[in-house]
Amino acid sequence: MSLVASPVLTSPFLPSVPRPAGRRIPRVLAIAGSDPSGGAGIQADLKSIAAHGGYGMAAITALTAQNTRGVSAVHVPPASFLTAQLDALSGDIGIDAVKIGMLGDATVIAAVRGWLEQARPGVVVLDPVMVATSGDRLLQETAEAALHALLPLADLVTPNLAELAILLREPVAADWAEALDQGKRLAALTGTTVLVKGGHLGRSAGGDDHNDDDGCPDALVNTVGLLDQETVVVTGARVPTGNSHGTGCSLSSALATVQARVGDWEAALREVKPWLTGALRASDRLDVGTGNGPVHHFHHVQHLTEDQGGTDQMNTGHRVPDEGEFAAALGNSAAADLDAIYGLAFIQGLADGTLAEKDFAYYLAQDALYLNGYSRVLARAAAIAPSEAEQLFWARSAQQCLEVESELHRNWLSTRAVEVKLGPVTKSYVDHLLAATVSGSYGVLVAAALPCFWLYAEVGATLHAQFLAAGAPEGHPYAEWLRTYADEDFAAATRQAIALTDQAARRASASERDAMAVAFRQSARYEVEFFDAPRLHA
After folding, report:
1. 93 contacts 126 by C-beta, under 8 angstroms
2. Which of 97, 304, 433, 510 is least buried, going by the fewest C-beta atoms within 10 A?
3. What is the pTM of this model?
4. pLDDT tens-digit profile of 119-158?
5. Are the C-beta atoms of residues 160 and 139 closer than 8 Å to each other?
């Protein structure tokens, strides 16, 4: 859809840092110890990175002899060999994010610190692995001071409650309020963001002894203004399972991967937390060990299931997806379409200013026609929405589409000799959306409409970031256009559209959710074709 500032807003997956068009796969390095059982350490990191669409790399800090019942031995190779691994990687491969896990001793910590100061990767997540879930000590006590000195080099620190207490030299927090207080003090001491995790607290850590839906909260804490709020709490369900081996490793590496893609810690946590909840729920599908088993990192990947007799994209069966889970799956399904969009000559020309004006004019003319039809689709969503808040959102979005269409004609199309004639791609896309309006399903309709918000917002944020990274050159012919992407209202609307679609999926039946996923994917593909239409027209 359009590159104009439309009514709708930023996705939880929008990038806020410059990223070259065409490269959508974050390159993520895990610096951690090895777990031969595959549930934690480097092995869990690589699975988590892959599960979130990243390209995983690994530098080994320690070798362990362990299984699901505990750690029996640890061998730390010479720190000089770790330095050789890190230098070999950064000397050849661009690294978008780093996750740091088990470091073992002070010499290893010093090696990592020296490399970080030299390489300066854009995203650093430090999981201060000191005590395993089994209770085994994984960091020498003599190395604690060195680890403290490493914390300020991290963008996010993710200790479990025992590690948080050790870092502050205090007893382990007894409740959620005390854990938050400890997190705030560690954030103030280090000047970085701290993730306080409620997983090790007692049942219903969120404060409601009768409701387990928010019994496992996590909180991003920063007292020096790096977050919009000092504390951002994301609630979640507590999963009754004995299989939690490697959850800390998996969470931190997933957050590093998503943060490299979206540039927003809250958005990253809201994407990763439902995934980890699903991984815990699905852990009983794995038959690994007799102790504290691993989580199912790829539970969300489409596969055949005997009990359903077919494929289930959401992998939820008849259960209600967790908040954000359906939206995260939609985002993953659109990754290939975003790759395709960033590879288009139209997008590359728009970014660097070399796009021919006739192609831009054709795009705008088609966009004006599209917005007219799209406004009708949004008006229909407003008419059948189940709540007043949803009705108002879609109605306002429909109105703004018409305002943007009018503005296009006033400011650009009316001053140029542009043929405003419905193109084949525009017609097909609008016909697809209109078909969704007669499906009788509110969920299918808003899922079909969502890519016009979401993919456009993703592309717009990336192009605007590149424009700023290039110094916002005054001679850029599309500078005014690219500046429209900085509109926070635009970003906020996309987030709301995503949230409403996710909410509709939670209300829907399993078969309706399948239909929503199909409608979304079809619209995402039309977004690719819409951006490529000027080339086909030429």
Report:
1. no
2. 304
3. 0.58
4. 989 899 999 987 655 555 656 677 788 899 999 999 999 9
5. no
